[in-house]
Amino acid sequence: MSAPEQSGGRFGSHLHEDASPTSDASPAPHRQPAPATLPMHPGGDAADVLPSSTEATVPAPRPGHAPTPTPTAHQDSAATVGRLAATVERLRAEVQAARAAVDGRALVELAKGIMIERLHCGPAQAARQLTELAEQADISELELAADIINEAARDQVAQVAADFVQRATTSAPQDGSASVAVRLRTAESAALAADDTQAVAQSLLQHALAPLDAVAVAVWTAGRDGSLALSGHAGFTREEADRWRYVPPGVATVARQALTSRRTVHLETVGTLPSIGQSGCPQGGRIAICAGTGGRIHGVLEICWPHPLPPLPQAVERQLEALAELCGHTLESRPAPSPSPHSPGDDPAAAELVDLSDALHDPALVLTPHLDTDGNLIDFRIHHANLHFQDPAGRPRSSLNGTLLLETYPLSVGAGDLYHHLERVYATGEPLPVRRTALTTLVDEVPLQVVADISVSRLGNCLLMIWRVEDETARLASLLQHAQRLGRIGGFEEDLTTGEITWNSTLYALHGRPLSEGPVALKDLAAHAHRDDANAIGRFLRTVLLHRRSANVAFRLQRADGVTRHIRIVAEPVLDSEGHLWRLRGAYQDISAQHWTEVALAATRDQLAQTAQEAAERNRLTLQLQHAIMPPTHGPLQVRGLQVAVRYRPAESEALVGGDWYDAVVLPSEQVLLCVGDIAGHGIDAATGMVVLRNALRGLAMTGAGPAQLLSWLNNVAHHLTDQVTATAVCALYDPATRILRWARAGHLPPVLVRTDQASALPLTGGLLLGALPEADYEEDEVQLQPGDTLLMYTDGLVERRDTAMHESLTQLLTNAQTPVDSLDQRLDHLLTYSKSDTDDDTCLIGIEVLTEPLD
Question: Domain named PAC: which ranges (predicted)?
């Protein structure tokens, strides 16, 4: 036996044995003869083929029993049909077992041939050696044969098997790692021995894909026109296969996705995507892999699962890629829609494309593939340049014929990616038009770029590339046409010597005139305009026709359909060689949208100006009202035993005039009323609310009530006698005779007491803000002041910050209040200067200093 030929994982010599089962008329059960080697069962492992369980036997009469009655004709017919069905089933099982045995025996015989070559022994010695090695390794002869073939071949199948063995320790597959090589080699031998692609598909499903839970497989052949033909299938019904015998170009199927993208398509479920077997398992998964050799894609291998398909392990993906490569070799050697590759000189497609390119009016190149020694595509050769082809670098056509594309145009792989498009068409056979592709060539080492429209198609093994260099004049004319359409501009020209007038289509649309009515002369423009624009149009015509200067005018065009459009016309005179007025050129532009936009903007500006004026007047009155009651600066108020100073800082923005207020007044009882408050909100409402509460508190204080009672009454005023005014306040009564300060608060910050350069806030007392509820009670507290003490009452505009908590702001205030100063005024100015508030709110600050000796 000669040594096998090895090429890319495919072996040229195989031993095939045909099993022709014979029928036995004996009623005894038929027993299948034992095969010489262990055949493959559908799971892919080597096992003995068991006899069929569906065989029918005729039992003999048992001694001592009376014979059964003679069956009727109907019973005889049913029994005959049953025996025939059992016989057909048995024969089918024997045929499948024989095929599996032949496939497995081919691997064993191939391994024997490798051993004969390597060991220089005879066939008998090789057989004994194989049997002894299998017994010593405790594996079957089939598995040992697959290992010997993998070691000798070193092809992709061997790599897949080795990768699977390496990952077996971690992935723990269901089937043994050795059976992977057996399955793949068995599928390979069966495919190479098959007469057609149909048998290849059945072998792939039985030996390699069924152990992966796949239920069906389809082998598609790619046609020159981008169509798909079903060359082989397994697992699909005959009706389903007949419906999908041919898929025209452009139908987006699972196989076409793989063919177009030139990559593996993995779908968890096929869903609504059309494909063969979709009705049988719509929720099943699909994988489509391109099948090709030497850089050429001959078709697609599509595999179906009955359940949703999760991501597969890398070892399984490589196994599927090996099967796709096997299909590629099969499609390459079997008759297919596309011709087998051969030399360009003998290719009738090349001669046909040469004749076709010479009949074209556009530049065209006929390209043939340039393959390396392994059959991989590495470049294209320029077989022919047609008569209209002009090289961008200025080289003659004769110098381009026979050269390689990448050597002639080395920059074709780059920005335009021309070579990628050619490679794609060569692999898939689908024509590809490409708009505005940049073609770059080198002229004396200087890159020269040309923009062109490319069209690439394949015939046989050759490519026809047609390029149409973009005409700059036509491109600019197209751009001008689009600009006129988008800008609603219509051009015109009048020949004053012949009276001929030319309008473009946009100008007819602006005038609302059909083409049958013809254009309107410029001198008759006033008849189609609003009568109030007649003077402006007359000045425009005198400037152009009499003074011969360019001019423009805006007018209202009265169309025949009753629509009024605002139009701007620009015209210029054209003089002949003798200085006479010869022609008029110009353009109309529809500015209706611009006109109404300007009108709307003008009205909006007027409204905004009026609103701004009213707001400024409102703010001015608010400030005047506020300053009339509480001037920003207030001189010290000296009463018996006290010195009172006040500071008021208004908001920086006039639009934020607030309702902060203060008061310091000596009552008839010689007690001093001290209060500070803050109205919620800004503007005139806050200012008027402040006036109401301030004056009400003054009047209520004349009753001699305490601070808590005064705030309770003031709450009723805010709730019942104002328009939903809410406010916070601190009210205090100071008795100069006893130096006792009684105070209460309504939701306001507590006063700060400064004593011997130590500042602290007075304890909080209970009290709801004014105006929130119709009735509210307030707590009252008192503090015994000492000579030299300073009491500070303020609004939140002194301490409030947007990004700081209130207790942190109060701590900062106490720190600033402890700074030694010479006078009460300096203390208040210091607090205002170093205040870190950032809310742009009003600020009221009252300082009360207890004097050492009472004043007279």
Answer: 551-603
